[in-house]
Amino acid sequence: MPRLRSDFWVSAHLRRLNDLAIPAVLRRRGAAEAGAIFVKVDRLDGTADLYGPAPQSLMAEPDDLGERRFTPVQQGASPPDVEERLSREIRYDSDLWIIEIDDREGRHFLDLAEG
User: Fold this and answer.
1) Could you give all domains of the chain from N- to C-terminal order, each with its CATH number?
2) CA dist 7 → 29, 43, 45, 52, 99 (Å)
3) For residues 49 and 104, is the Cβ–Cβ distance under 8 A?
4) pLDDT in tens for each of the 115 residues of the chain?
5) Residue 73: HSE in the Cβ half-sphere, 13 Å Cα cutoff
6) Please, are residues 91 and 18 in contact by the beta-carbon 8 Å criterion?
């Protein structure tokens, strides 16, 4: 199954979060077709979580290759540490997308890879 374009996926995810009254913004626009997507969740208590694309080796089934799955990159980190990691990711891949969510409960509604 072909993977949904990054721009469509990001737009749909932001709409979903908005419909659930969870504040989220697009911080960085990447490559429309296939840019990697990172999601920062600011818990508004001095900690933040960062999620990035899951490696294909963590996909449960071959059919999962068309879906977007995420894996925790940092959890319970300070927001400056998350920003430093995002800066490194941007230097490595300038076509990536960044979504930022502000939610005390840490809700993100991402599909996490089993692993």
Assistant:
1) 6-102 (3.40.1530.20)
2) 8, 25, 30, 16, 12
3) no
4) 577 899 999 999 999 999 999 999 999 999 999 899 999 999 999 999 999 999 876 555 545 545 789 999 999 999 999 999 999 999 999 999 999 999 999 999 999 997 6
5) 23
6) no
